Amino acid sequence: MKSILFKFFIRNWFRKLIALILALITWFVLNQTLITTKTITGVGVRVINIPQGNTIQGLESNGYLNKRISLSLTGKRRSITALAAHDIEVTFDASTMGKEWIASVRKNNLTSFSPSLSIARDIIKVSTKNLIMKLQPITTETIPIYISKPVGEAPNGFQFLDIWPYHLNIKVQGPEQTIQKLKNNGIKLTFNLEKINKNELNRLANSTSANVISYFIPNDWKKIFLPSISEDSIIIDDPEAKFLRIDLIRGEKLPIEFPIPITIFTSSKLNFHTPKLQNSPLINSSQDVKLLKIPVYSSGISQLFLEIIKDHVALSINLTPHTDLNNIDWSMHFINSRQLEDQYVTAVLTDYLDDDLKMMSSLLRQEYLRNRFRNYMHRFQLYTEAGDLLSLRFKVEGKEIAISHDFQ
Questions:
Q1: What is the per-residue pLDDT across 382-403, written as a single tens digit (0 to 9) for each?
Q2: Left (φ > 0), alpha (ψ -120 to 50) or beta: where does 298 sit?
Q3: Contact 146, 186 (CB under 8 A)
């Protein structure tokens, strides 16, 4: 064993040392001069010296474009192999350009943040797609915000009623073309009901006997994210934003204690005489008026709403030329709905005006209450005592309309 080691390390040791030194020198020289190409994605682009009062489409407040680019670098292998996007950036000087120019990336546009990379020494060639730069005047406009119906489910025990106001404005500053597009299209803002703090909602509900609980939108929610304008969210500066709320109503079931007349709506284009409603255990007759007999309930509305509509609502059987006579459609019909709306607004403003409503101007207050009443009418449905949606079936049998019901 010693003989083998002796032969390997000692015999001709000088020649072996010279060979090792030459090998190291060769490796070092090759490593320093070896050329390779590497593509780096996500490289930032910064524009400096932009003329005052102007900007560039997609330019953020920090001077960087909101879109990053890919660079293909050719240079010394040892210097560019480990490069990442944060080690390098592209910089353009707008002061030497016109209002619109094609920005080609060259070595003098590169800035290195890596101590091991010298652009002049280590980079031979850089290539990427050309960028089109266009100076635009900075303008300030008022942009409409459209508040849409929230997504998600309301906390258990509550139902979503309405969100108000439906429309706000926000003043933003940015490139003229971008701002004009935003102004023409508006901005859609949607909240998530599942983000409402249930404990906070229960606290609000316990502090009032009213059916409607107004959850005022927290200031943290009153922001708009416009990446084409700013990398940060923009606070909604409309004074009316302080009234922004989601109205929820207790999910309790309210009995309908007034009789509901049953009417038959017919089209003048029917080619047969209107049939009469057949006697049934489900209906009562009072002075030739058919009334729904079975106990029914409603949910997601207020007791005041029921008081207002009790003499002005009917169940309408709808007969049209396209009606399936074995499964006739029916709906709830309000009589003189505008007058009912006026009565509701007057009643609330007279007897039920709370502190939140007192904060609003008279016109806003009336608009808000009218929207609430229309929501009540839109969601008004009949339920059975068990909580099932009332399912009535009407069909023509000879010269009469038969009524039956099941649950769904």
A1: 999 888 888 888 888 888 888 8
A2: beta
A3: yes
In this prediction, residue 283 carries a pLDDT of: 82
Q: Is the dihedral of CA 14, 15, 17, 18 positive or negative?
A: positive
Residue with tokens 């950036």: 89
Q: Which of 73, 69, 109, 71 is nearest to 91 (CA)?
A: 109
Question: Do residues 163 and 204 lie in contact, with contact meaning Cβ atoms separated by under 8 Å?
Answer: no
- Identify the bridge partners of residue 364 per DSSP, sorted by sequence position: none
For residues 246 and 264, state if they share a domain.
Answer: no
**Residue 267 banded pLDDT, cuts 50, 70, 90:** low
CB neighbours of 316 closer than 8 A, spacing ≥ 6?
Answer: 263, 264, 265, 330, 331, 332, 333
The domain containing residue 313 runs over which residues? 254-407
Taking the C-alpha atoms of residue 56 and residue 252, their distance in angstroms, rounded to an integer, is: 56
Picking from 107, 129, 151, the residue at the C-terminal end of a domain is 129
Separation CA 63–CA 297 (nearest Å):
62
Within 209-329, strands assigned E span 212-216, 223-224, 234-235, 245-250, 253-255, 262-266, 276-277, 283-286, 289-292, 297-299, 313-319
Angle between helix 337-351 and 362-379 (nearest 10): 130
Q: What's the total number of domains in the chain?
A: 3
